[in-house]
Write a structure and sequence with these properties.
315 residues; alpha+beta; 15% strand
Amino acid sequence: MSYSEHLSCFEDLITPYEETRAGFVSLALEKNRQATPFVEEAKVLKAIASKAKSPLDLLNMEDIKPAILAASGLSDKALSHLSDENKNTAILELIKNYLQPAGKKFVEELVYRFLLTRGDSLGGMMRNIGGVLGERKLIRCLISTLKIFGYKYTWNDGTIWLAQTDNDSDIEIRLKGLSWKNKVKRTLLLNMKVPIVNKNVDICLFDCDYMDFDNSEASPNKNPSKYIALGELKGGIDPAGADEHWKTANSALERIRTAFNSVSIFPKTFFIGAAIENSMALEIYNQLKGKSLANAANLTNNEQLISICKWLVLL
């Protein structure tokens, strides 16, 4: 039993309070990191807008018009549906209702409102940041495992396949696929649509080389027999959403098994999650014992993560 190397009971899967706390801190740090470009934009906006003697002067500052439109509350998506006349109307309303009443502090008011809109954009970017950070952590562990085992890898940045380099710092930010050879060739792809399931799957491990993939009907992703393992990854750390994330992942895993079983093919399925509470830990462990799940690990537990990465690399 592959999972028995790192799990002896269902309690082993439960996320400790300390890891939950550390996860929230990581999210806060990442949010600050991603907010930095918006803060720098605001500084530039303030410096340029300060040359205006009155709010109406902003109408003639074409260079910062996109930022002024953002300050008026219009998102990039909204702007694509508006005419130039609509945009000018929005700017005039901003000036009339908010900048002129601010008096001499109209530039500060402009910057504050710009940051409000950018903050909304940041919120949208952050909604799945737990999943993104979880994926990066898994990728880094997979790469480290390959390097410790002495396996050379090739990686995909979403466009092309690239050879392994000595400097692989931050590679996990761009990586969308990995390929290596133990005794046989293996390729792992992230977030891809599996035709037989007709849904996206977080992690897919194939019995093939990366060069076998193309747009033809013979491509491994269109051949169910080429799939070795398929897994769901839930990187969100908030305990309040843990059960819902597991329900979503469990449904996806069951859908995968049903689709492949219909053609008498039985790839392994696995689950990796950051927020795992008592009840779901018990359910996951029972599935492991019942062999519907081949493996599972808590993303916040390094020993478990290393063990499941080792399992994937050696499959």
